[in-house]
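Example A, followed by Example B.
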Amino acid sequence: MYPVPVLHGNKIAMLLFCFVCFNASFVKAQCIDTTANPTVSASVSTGASIYSFNNPSNALANDASRATATSLLQLFGDETTDYLQVKGFGFNIPTAASICGIQATVVRSASNVDLLFHTSSVKDIDVRLMKGGALTGINEAHTSTEWPSSDGNATYGSNSDLWGISWSPADINSNNFGFSISAKIHGTVSLFPAARINYISMTVSYLDPTVLSTQALQFRLANGANHSAALSWKLNTTDEGVTYSVERSVNGMKWQPVQGLPQQNFHAAMFSFIDAQPLPGQSFYRLKITFSSGEVRYSTIQSFEYLDSLSLKGYPNPVTTIIQVAGVIPGERVALTDLYGKRLFLSAPAKNTIIQLDVAHLQPGMYVISAGNRKMKIQKK
């Protein structure tokens, strides 16, 4: 009989730590994130709410327009808004997938609030998902956080948070899958706060059994010579008929094949591929793997960033209220900071090459707008 080794506390802890880290990265590598925007919105009574959201469709786009619930004749008390509910995201999760987590991003603000003495404020009161058109799951409201006086992002859930219930791909793909938020308005005799929502988006993370993990495939992506994207991979398989094709995407959702054939290093059993003309800014790559049986599987998605002569341009500059920022790559987030690097605003992923920023609330002075590694200075008058 062989002796059984004795593991003392610190060794056991180290083994457990390594096990958890390996398994966490393995699972995360297989979970795919997909983000979508709503197409339908409505202000729906909670049964006890007295303030409805005007223009609820303004929450469908990330621009200077907002869905607004304004308090009227509010005297030293707390009242609630309607639910602002959005749905019609158009997700297309594979039917065999498992849902890993759901995250919502809300760009919201409040007007006529006192953030110094807290005599008037707007806070979350009910934040939940909708399944089959009905409210469900855990209320993930940030009930102790006051909404800022200028647009700021609030995130609810995560890529591993199921909001307390189970989800199927059919639940997510349904037009009645949605997000709902209601706020509590606290006002005074002289301040009548308003809850304002600019934009809502949803990100769903799912595990697709047809996707090969990074570890199983040993898939790598790096910057190559002459501003190229260099891909390499190795798959341990006895299938001599397996073929590979490289696919590229600007947003990680819609994919196009990249022309060219992979090169094989027989000595190292490695494949390589060079994309000599990658997309400007950030893009995404994956491998389509076809086995001799006809089965098709995909690699995990790898991101790549290439910067060409594209630059950011803002107009008008100097600006007083709204600035149009051109040169944005779809999928990028646009950040606004002061000259010391303090972030004042971060947009949701851009849908177009132009994005509007509302800077009316800023003090006069110089600020920096950035997207990716590109930056520009603006002057607020």
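Example B, a separate protein, is given below in the same form.
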Amino acid sequence: MKKLLLVKLSALGDVVQTLPVLAALKRVHPGLAIHWVVEEEQAELLAGHPLIERLLVFPRRRILRCLRNPRTLPRGWSLARKFLQDLRAERYDAVLDLQGLLKSALVVALARSRRRIGFANHREGSPLVLTEKLPPYDPDLHAVRRYLSAAEHLGGRPEPVEFPLPPHPSAETVGRRLRLPPPPWLVFIPATRWPTKLWPDEHWRDLAGRACALGLPLLWIGGPGDRDYLAGLALRGTDLSGRLSLKELAGILSGAAAVVSVDTGPMHLAAALGRPVVALFGPTAPWRTGPFGEGHRVLRAGLPCSPCFRRSCPEPRCMSGISPEEVLQALTETLERSRRGSPRDRR
């Protein structure tokens, strides 16, 4: 096999958890040309990656927005046609679908390859376009292990698990641009798309007040759409919501002494950078999508209804039941362990 098309479109955490596939394949096939299809929102993180020969950027959301409006309909068709031309400009020895949804199935079906590989229990009818169906994966297997099992089907060697990240600015460089105190920092990541994954606002404010005693500058991370939310939380520390590109986000996280986060994409990026994470989990399963590697702490309320994987809940006690006191204790212990130089080898 000389040329592979890897299809992993979104979201940030999923893209980060796919990175070990690159290392696993390149160990055995150093001459393999890997092309990656990714959506626009995550493309910057992969830009310039030394293990990716070609990055195909799928402007899916822009296409859909344009197609919904008669005035921008021609623009939408033009964007779709350009992406299709780029996709079909190459012939591949194999296409590997690690997204497993209708949107990725369309890409897989349109790519020029006789081998279309993915899991038999992928969703939304996506296995219908496959020519090689991998055995159904265990849904309780960690996502990183799931993706690596697909790489093994192509002869990849998964161990040791590595997260090869593309070049990004250093913590010091990003810190100087933003006029931050020098690293290391404490980094809090409170925002997520699922309302049920949110930790109560008063808990974050309580934790921020208690964390001042740890003697480290506090940074709050969020996207442009999180500014209003973080404005009510970041009463202590520096609010960086909407001020970082993805590569700058990697730079900031690389300078973290420790990270406290809900289940969200930047949490996975912090773990991939080897930074210790205190992760707050409620409706989702940390054994499936928790921070991968050693040295992390996962806190749960331990309710029998958790994980429920629901995006709405009238009373999400699985998150409110995690107290600021236990998060502070886990954070303090994580910092102590990090200062002692405890290893954080990948599982």
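On Example B: The CA atoms of residues 134 and 153 lie 8 Å apart.
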